[in-house]
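[09:14] KT: can someone run the structure on this one? pasting the chain below
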Amino acid sequence: MLSDGPLSANVHVIAVDLTPGPVRRAKVFLALVAAVRQWAVSLNASHSFIHVTTGSNIKATDRLMKAAGARFVGGAYADSHIY
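[09:31] RB: done, structure tokens below
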């Protein structure tokens, strides 16, 4: 990211295998988020963004992100039409 301000770490995809059960997937996701946090600290970034683009089970996604220590700071919009 080009900026005159503090550095931020941005993650656009965290993909977790859907084969394991939901508890195992959540643990893997939380471990990956912790790794992102360590990476951001190693870059001396002031914060990190994890862009969530899922359209399924939004409430569960919100709970998982909150469990990871994340705060909702914006939103994304997608056109419902496929061109």
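[09:33] KT: thanks! The beta strands are 8-11, 47-50.
[09:34] RB: yep, looked fine to me
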